[in-house]
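Example record used in the benchmark description.
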Amino acid sequence: MIRCHLSRLMGEKKLKISDLARETGLHRNTITLLYQENATRVDIETMDVLCRYFCVSIGELFEFVDVPPQLS
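Model output (structure tokens):
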């Protein structure tokens, strides 16, 4: 499972989704999906914009979390 740390990064800077959309030029819906961790795909350009804006690496924005398979 891939976790997105956008909500934490935004919280540290006290940013609203509308603020980030205005300052980066990214679509509000794109930011909302990443913020709520509901995105099913992310454009490389979007990742580039966010990493540059927050001055973080891709590994600080996204994290792989190993989830064990559920037993039936």
